[in-house]
TrEMBL record:
Designated name of the protein: ADP-dependent (S)-NAD(P)H-hydrate dehydratase
E.C. numbers: 4.2.1.136
Encoding gene (name): nnrD
Positions with a binding annotation for AMP: 188-192, 216
InterPro entries registered for this protein in UniProt: Carbohydrate_kinase_pred_CS, CARKD, Ribokinase-like
EC main group: lyase
Length: 279
């Protein structure tokens, strides 16, 4: 049985103050692999969130037809077309976030299969999880550190059960995911859970206004950006989940739940990060 620990600022790591002589190489390099022709927006939201979390450099890896989203919304990011092989393109210190808007075509399958054998830190989300569910845990080779971020529908696919079963006992579902697949897990939805098998935390913030397309992509980028700056996997996941939920609450206070968009969560991240220790 994992030990329960509230996801509150006193139980979570914090980002260190930046040294005066810091340069962008000190704050990590996030690669977001996603962006099928129809879903460049998901990649772009994740990349933006990684930068807002403080990553030094962010690169989108997507289908050429989806580059326009990043070019328009995030000129600060660099770009790479889906390569035939990822291995030679990623530095050892990279954090790879895979899945936002990736789709489930042949190229996506090949890239996800290869990513499962890379040694760089990885965040598995969205279609990367759908492909993992289809192929099975054998795809996760080697000893890379991994964080997985399913919503209840994806968790159900990974556990070969129904969304209702996952939602009926969320703690049992996340325990089973950790046991089957290893790594750190984030089970999204009301009261998001984070567990590495030894600790289990529940996020006390968030609201149904966040049930809107793209808000999970923002979370993925946020985790990647914090992880790239040197936090450990469970710490980065827990902190990102709480910052994301607090940002969602501020956005809902300002705009109302019905009108809330994923980009409104993004817009509140700087404010939450600045005031985090006083939360
Ligand atoms: N702008 C863009 O480019 C965007 C692109 N996007 C990209 O789209 C791709 C597909 O991802 P997706 O999540 O939209 O589809 P999918 O996995 O079939 O999940 C839907 C089903 O899952 C369930 N479910 C979900 N949440 C639940 C909850 N909290 N609580 C309970 N159940 C929940 C629910 O199942 P049901 O309840 O019906 O059984 C629901 O019908 C992916 O690549 C993503 O990145 C999106 O990010 C949007 C913006
Ligand atoms: N009712 C809710 N209460 C709190 N948080 C929610 C609620 N609904 C959704 N969220 C949060 O919004 C995000 C939705 O992620 P996801 O379903 O992956 O969306 P998308 O695939 O569109 O990006 C998650 O972080 C989830 O925890």
């Amino acid at each position: 049985m994992p030990m329960h620990r509230d996801l509150l600022p006193e139980n979570l790591p914090a980002l260190s103050k930046r040294p005066l002589a810091a340069h962008k190489g000190n704050f990590g390099h996030v690669y977001v692999l996603g962006g099928s022709p129809e879903m460049g927006g998901a990649l772009s939201l994740a990349a933006l969130a990684a930068y807002r979390a403080g990553a030094g450099l962010v690169t989108g890896i997507g289908h050429p037809q989806s580059q326009i989203y990043l070019a328009v919304h995030l000129p600060e990011a660099t770009w790479m077309d889906w390569p035939p092989r990822l291995a030679s393109r990623l530095p050892d210190h990279a954090v790879l976030a895979l899945g936002p808007g990736l789709g489930q075509g042949l190229a996506a399958h090949d890239l996800v299969r290869e990513a499962g054998g890379l040694q760089q830190r990885q965040i598995w989300d969205a279609d990367a999880l759908n492909i993992l569910a289809r192929i099975g845990p054998d795809i996760l080779r080697g000893a890379a550190e991994r964080i997985f971020t399913p919503h209840p529908g994806e968790a159900a696919r990974l556990l070969r059960t129904t969304t209702t079963t996952v939602q009926t006992d969320r703690e049992a579902a996340i325990a089973e995911l950790v046991q089957r697949y290893g790594g750190v897990w984030v089970l999204k939805g009301e009261g998001t859970l984070v567990s590495d098998g030894s600790l289990l935390g529940r996020c006390p913030w968030g609201n149904p206004g966040m049930a809107t397309g793209g808000s999970g992509d923002v979370l993925t980028g946020l985790i990647a950006g914090l992880w790239a700056q040197g936090l450990n996997a469970a710490g980065a996941a827990g902190l990102a989940v709480c910052i994301h939920a607090r940002a969602g609450d501020l956005a809902a206070d300002e705009l109302g739940e019905a009108s809330l968009l994923a980009r409104d969560i993004l817009a509140q991240i700087p404010r939450v990060l600045q005031n985090w220790s006083a939360t």
